[in-house]
Amino acid sequence: MVKARHAEIAGAGLGGLAAGIALAQRGWSVRIHERSPELRMFGAGIWLWENGLRSLAALGVEQAATKRARRIETLVVKDQHGRVLMRREFGARDRMMLPPRADLYNALIARADELGIDIVTSSPIVAATPHGELVQESGKVHKADLVVAADGAFSRVRESLLLGRRVDYLDEGYTRLLIPRRDEDPPTEITEYWNGSRRLLYDPCTDDLNYVCLCCHVDDERGRRIPVDKESWLESFPTLGGIIERIDAVGRWDRAMRVTCRAWSRGRAVVVGDAAHAQPPNLGQGANLTFQNALSLAAYLDEEQDIPRALLRWEKKERPLTDHVQRWTDLYGRVASAWPERFASRRSQVLELATKLPWVDRQLNKAARHIPVGAG
């Protein structure tokens, strides 16, 4: 009888749980270390595109994660004059759903428990070795066939392996929160409103809640203020008072970041999620890429007994799409936030034309329309 392979994972966020579930479904024994004393998810809503939904279905959590979510039919981008700059339709084979982030997290935790995954809280991990070892802050070493760094954009484990190339702070940031839903709110259409370097993103979320994201430049002091400066945002979006007035004191402003790795693995150690490819949320693909990469990681390991070789093959096949999305989400942010305000009308003209080109549509939606390895 072949002995089950064992994985030790640093981080019990979305990436760590997804990787653990994908491995456990293939017969691995898994232990996940979480530095916090309890499992808790920060954030508001989350965009789940078709590639993410397929990945979550393969992980056995799609239904539980999306049971309260709105099925999105249309995504629209409008400028300060109400001019439509981009329109994206969704269909039966090209879906978008928008659950609360906490629903998704709880579904992953429940699935991990169902599979017998050992989640250890108050267990900070500070390093790993290519030989398959995770090192706790206390100095205790956990040996495994595979160790996974899923400890976020500031990953200590990644840096102990010298896998990081760059961690960039970008010139935009986001305040993301949930507001009460009203009967008159659009039920199935996401609308992103642009005015200068500011954006307000309205997202139907559940029957009771909507997800709102406020985006501004890092130098926009009133725009990034917490509690939200409603008067300032109302000046930028005077027709959206019905949304802005529902914003309460809850929320936080986060600066956008981008993580680029020299490689995604070294020996028996691998990085996933934000530790590997943190990116601004402009295309809403960060978590979806995390899920599909975690799923495909387990699939490649299932096909290859030589773990270091399997990890290299996985990165060679899967990383190009992630790199592509990072480039395009950066470009989207620069066009939206860094375009000189005196040329705002020209921006509208350029975007209206560009987003109608089939080539641009393919680049923006390349990941969303990708069928993940391991998703059937």
TrEMBL record:
GO terms for molecular function: FAD binding; salicylate 1-monooxygenase activity. It comes from the Bacteria. Pfam families: FAD_binding_3. Keywords: Monooxygenase, Oxidoreductase. Residues 9-302 form the FAD-binding domain. Its EC number is 1.14.13.1. It is an enzyme of class 1 (oxidoreductase). The keyword Metal-binding does not apply. This is Salicylate hydroxylase. It comes from Carbonactinospora thermoautotrophica.
